[in-house]
Every structure is written in structure tokens, then in C-alpha cells.
Design a protein that fits this description.
Elements lengths: L15 H32 L2 H26 L4 H15 L2 H13 L3 H35 L20
Helix pairs in contact: 1-2, 1-3, 2-3, 2-4, 2-5, 4-5
Length: 167
């Protein structure tokens, strides 16, 4: 029987400190992401007006979030904290599936079935394309950063002298 230190069911044990740190990173990213989405919806409602403005704001928020999550995804293997803060926190609250579905449902109920279908198709295709573009951008940043690293020192001929022997 495994104890708490060993984890349960093959899942590695986690510390409360680590979990709280991860939760803090997600929350720190979620707050500005949610505020940006809220601001975009305000701009959409004021600028375009009504349901069309909300749908447009949701579309913009989701497309920006898809591009950003692609960039983050390209770096996720190297930077777990970036994924927690920017990917799960910021992009997760900026691009909410429930808000997207709510706006599409409202459009359908208002008799705008074709418009809702177009937004659905554009969101899916555009979102996937922007994640791929973001991933390409993020990968190129990694490649560019790796190219700027100095090369490792060249080994000396014959290597270092053995320990205990002089010259």
C-alpha cells in the first residue's frame, strides 16, 4: 500500500506549497484575461451594438486567445509556469467556450441561423489556423533564442591532466 508521499494510483505526490503556487499562477493570469474579455464585450456592445457587438467581441477575444495559446504551446515543454499563467489562466479566461455558445444560441433564437453558422465555422477554422500560426511564431522564437546562445567551449587537446599528476 502506497503512502501519500508516493502518490495514489501512480500519480506523483504533490505538495500543498506547489499546488498553491500553481493556483496562484493560474489566478494571476485569469484576472487580466477576464478583464480583457469584459472590456472587449463593452467595446463591441458600444461600437457595433447589441447581439452583433457581443458576437463580434467574442470572436475577436477567441481569435486573439487562439493565437496566444499557440505561442504558449510552443514553449510549454520548457516553461511550465508560462503555460499555467498565460495558457490556462490568461487565455482560458479570455477565450471562454460558454460565452461563445451563449452568443451563438442568442443569435439562433433571434433568427440569425446563417450568421450563427458562419461565426461557428469561422471560429473553428480561424481558431485552428491561429493556433498553428501562434505555434509557428513561438517555435521560431525558441529557434532564434537558441541561435543566440554562445557555443560550448571546445575541448582542449588531450583533455585535462589526471588528478594527482603535475605537468
Amino acid at each position: 500500500m502506497s503512502g501519500i508521499k508516493d502518490g495514489i494510483g501512480g500519480i506523483p505526490a504533490r505538495s500543498l506549497h506547489g499546488d498553491l503556487r500553481d493556483l496562484g499562477l493560474v489566478a494571476a493570469g485569469a484576472i487580466p484575461g477576464a478583464l480583457l474579455r469584459w472590456r472587449l464585450e463593452g467595446i463591441g456592445t458600444a461600437g457595433v451594438g447589441g447581439l452583433r457587438g457581443l458576437v463580434a467581441a467574442d470572436f475577436v477575444a477567441n481569435m486573439v486567445g487562439c493565437l496566444l495559446i499557440g505561442v504558449v504551446l510552443a514553449q510549454a515543454n520548457r516553461r511550465k509556469r508560462l503555460m499555467l499563467w498565460a495558457g490556462i489562466g490568461f487565455c482560458g479566461s479570455l477565450t471562454t467556450f460558454s460565452s461563445w455558445m451563449l452568443q451563438l444560441a442568442r443569435a439562433l433564437l433571434a433568427g440569425h441561423g446563417w450568421a450563427a453558422g458562419l461565426v461557428l465555422l469561422a471560429s473553428l477554422c480561424g481558431g485552428l489556423a491561429l493556433v498553428a500560426l501562434g505555434y509557428t511564431i513561438g517555435s521560431s522564437w525558441i529557434t532564434a533564442a537558441s541561435a543566440k546562445l554562445p557555443p560550448p567551449p571546445a575541448p582542449t587537446k588531450g583533455g585535462p591532466p589526471p588528478i594527482g599528476r603535475r605537468g
